[in-house]
Amino acid sequence: FDRQVQVGLPDREGRRRILAIHTRNKPIQSEEVLDEIARATFGFSGAHLESLANEAAILAMRENSEVIDSIHFTEAIDKVLLGEKVDRKPTQKEMERVSYHEGGHALVSE
Predict the structure, then answer these.
(1) Does residue 98 contact residue 86 with C-beta atoms inside 8 Å?
(2) Domain map of the chain by residue range?
(3) Is residue 102 annotated as a catalytic residue, yes or no?
(4) CA-CA 20 to 30 A from 41: which of 4, 51, 72, 104?
């Protein structure tokens, strides 16, 4: 294509609507869960939110949970941002890097 269109990241309401689309056929504990997750996902793209919804559903399924709740979404956020859990203790340098990263999120959050 000869044109490129820049699409910005969604705001909180946009994230809420994207999450609603990607969870419409999934059993969510309540609508308030989506509001909570929309607030917690500043900087997420639509693709990140889609991955998040799918990962939360997988986590709930693994626990034989009948609904996807905020705990599943919170764990999925960590997985989407940081990758799979590791069975080793993080080094001091890794912990410092994560602290700076999360501090940045806190500074720019809505």
Answers:
(1) no
(2) 12-108
(3) yes
(4) 4
